[in-house]
Amino acid sequence: MKRLLVLWTGLSIATVLWAEDKPVLTWQPLPGSPSNYRVEVSGLGAEMWARLKSERDQGIEPERWLSVRVVPKDLLKALDVPAMGGRFDFAPEKAYLRFEPDYALEPGLRYEAVFRAGDLLPVRATLSIPNHPEGPPTRVLSIYPSSEVLPENLLKFYLVFSGSMSRGHIYDFIELRDEWGKTVEIPFLEIDEELWDAAQTRLTLFIDPGRIKRGVKPLEEVGPAIKAGRRYSLRIDSKWPDAQGRPLAAPALKTFRVAPPDRTPIDPLTWRLATPRAGTRDPLVVRFGEPLDFGLAGRLLSIRRAGNAEIAGRAELHALESEWRWIPDQPWLAGCGVIRVPSILEDLAGNNVGKAFEVDVFEKVDRNSVPGRNEISFEIR
Question: Where are the alpha helices (DSSP H) in the chain?
């Protein structure tokens, strides 16, 4: 880093920066949504990158240098606005520092990124997301679980939208009613940190665990949120605004019947496999015998050849999330392989592989009874 040259002007002191460090701060659009952006710092000299790397090695976090905030309409409140949460990518060897917010930016708001480091003057870059509608109105694509029969101790729903949704006040637009049209009081775990994916197109909606686990006050005093033998409907209000402030194209409704609670751990040894023939791209099919969690089953299961070589391809869930298929990118080769089953896989009630949802807190477990096998072997012929 070049040092600063100080000039005496007679009335003030002016600082002139030598040319090696010319930080550039840019907003870069990301795929998936017109509101997805990241911020990149570039243009620093080798000495400054080395200095920042040294500070990072000493435990200084990148948010000390780079921050992103919403610019309030009342600038007097600017100091009270917290920095956005997100992920930093500090790569001095590639001469960049990047920040990607946890969530899509809100249309109609103005954002400011600020980079401060060493003797450099602060560098700022602002971005405003247009508030005018782009594309067709957002709609609800799916509500998971897909099954019309759900256990009394159901743990969560997933709502999938066609476009990015707005954050905040989600519980104003979601309602659970019983078969007589009566609203179920506070069935969901209402938390400030809404559980959206990065594109804000999928929302995870938890049933209050206190109304699922045995021995917990809400379950004993109020009862379960949904009761076996009854019918319910999950209703999504069309007034719910998307990320561009537009209401949904239409309301959404999922009706279901409630079965007795499920407290049986997942046992991969009971799964059935249908293996394809070598030389084809037919799917390898795994039938669970019950629906599994949509968000986890689709991404946690994986396939390896003997010797741990990865088999490139894609996973699909079918038959109301009770069937998993792996479609390879290339034709199958003859030989053996394994399906890896992480222990954190869940069924609809949150039961894991070898362990029920509430077993760790409310029941004693014989460790010898918990299956330790998390791989299923198969052979392609």
Answer: 46-57, 217-221, 294-300, 359-362
Provide the 8-state DSSP code for 306. T
**C-alpha to C-alpha distance for 334 and 329, rounded to whole angstroms:** 15
Whole-number Cα distances in Å, 84 to 22, 100, 190 = 25, 10, 21
Nearby residues of 295 by Cβ (< 8 Å), 6 or more positions away: 144, 158, 202, 204
Q: Are 33 and 135 in contact (CB under 8 A)?
A: no
Query: Under 8 Å CB-to-CB from 4, ≥6 apart: which residues?
Result: 15, 16, 17, 18, 119
Whether residue 145 is preceded by a cis peptide bond, meaning omega within 30 degrees of 0, is yes
Tell me how far apart the 2 most distant CA atoms of the chain are, in Å.
Answer: 87
Cβ-contact 223, 211 below 8 angstroms: yes
- The string of pLDDT tens digits covering residues 40-85 is 999 888 888 888 999 989 989 988 999 999 988 776 565 678 888 8
- Within 10 angstroms of residue 359's Cβ, the number of other Cβ atoms is 16
